[in-house]
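Supplementary Text 2. Reproducibility record for the structural model of the 372-residue chain.

All settings were left at their defaults, and a single model was retained for analysis rather than an ensemble. We include the record here because the model underlies the residue-level annotations in Supplementary Table 4.
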Amino acid sequence: MSSWNMRDKVCVVGVGNTQYGNFPETDSYGLGAQALAAAVEDAGLSFKDIDGLIVNRIPSYERFAQMVGINPQFCLPTDMAGRFASVSLTIAAQAVASGAAETVALVYGNNGRSKRMLYGGAEGGQWNPWGMTSPGATHAMMWRMHMDRFGTTTDDLGRVASTFRKHASLNADAVMRTPFTLEDYHQARPICEPLRLLDYCLINDGGVAWIVTTPERAKDLRKPPVYVSGYAQRDVFEQATPRDDFWYPALQQIAGEVYDRAGIGRDEIDGLMIYDNFTPTVLFTLEGLGFCPQGESGNFIKDGILELGTGRLPANTNGGHLSESYMQGWALIAEAVRQARGECGDRQIEGARAIQYACAANIASSIIFRRD
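Retained model, structure tokens:
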């Protein structure tokens, strides 16, 4: 929008992550500290340069700051839901742009696999007025509605899952790297019909960190800055999940803002990082952001548009939540930064300059990252 003044005011200068898997010998603090050390090294900074801290899934920012030896002037914990990956980044951007801090570290640590965290049931922590506490079940119901309304199929889901697995085969950090066919997808066991095992994200232990600062400060650092060119979000709490609108109105509003704010057209996006807790959200996101008409996402992806090397719009090049690991958006944003820098090796999007992150959820959001 014309009154928006945040374009390219903040940039990402460091990203880091741990391995992903089962690490009962540590906890979310240890995983976050390991990821932050990698991000600090990536940026060419020292811990004493950090004057802002946002933590996610790490219980105490005070304890974490003490562990890593920093004294930030701006501190904040954010909610554990995955939608808060983008929320955390936009808060950090506002802190930097306002002068509340110059260099903000954002740290995510999750030991959900080793402590057998349930993303549903009594531990789910979300408002479920209809008694449906399983996120997989709610997405299964939404996809069934989508199939009935628009004629989409489970083949469409299988193409998403198999494409992201193909990308994961090129990523040494990915937990699942063996490619599979559409036939293999249909042979996977049902979990909550019409969703199968390969439609679900992978719960693992792991940590991810990003460091953001001003463009002026970034000039002195190790890596080329990746600018946060535009972002938009909409809270959609008036209807409980499962939603019968697939977050479409909220995503449409975001699409009307994020490209204008970033000063870029949809057709100039070189790659997508789509929050893929379950395969249907990928298709809901493509429709909501206007990459294809509503109900047409199955046809849109049929010819491989999301695939590296052959597709016009490669998506989730690290394998995403479905095949790399469920780091709740944090690793997807790290991948967006690495793609914009041209650092992804065999999975690099050729000539990538603008990468878009998007999340279809009860806080629907999108961020556009640009190399210059």
